[in-house]
DinB family protein
Amino acid sequence: MAIVAGLDDAALRTAVLPSGWTPLGLIEHLGDAERHWLQDVFAGARPGGPDASGFAFYREQCRISDGIIAGATLDTAPVGRHHDEPLASQTTDLRRILLHLIEETARHAGHLDAARELLDGRTGLGPR
């Protein structure tokens, strides 16, 4: 992830946001979101705990997500169901699950932007 490229381990583990999130914690959370929404909810699988952490975990979850997405159409209904009823009723097919994931990723990418600026003052990082 370009927004955190060049940060050392101490910075990646430093909480600078009022929420207490660290950059590494946000990245792992995004990996958890990929796993939860596409493996657990959409595919109905019950994945075990992470085999890796940090960037490796996030990349692995994205790789698995890509495979799940490639094997389905956007109107495919999920096999599983989210435990929270409002979210379950809003994520009734792959398209809506992906929209939710885009929203989640965008929200936390903004958090990462703010954290990076607070850590070392750098802004405007990442792909355009």
About this structure: Residues 67 and 110 are 26 Å apart (CA to CA).
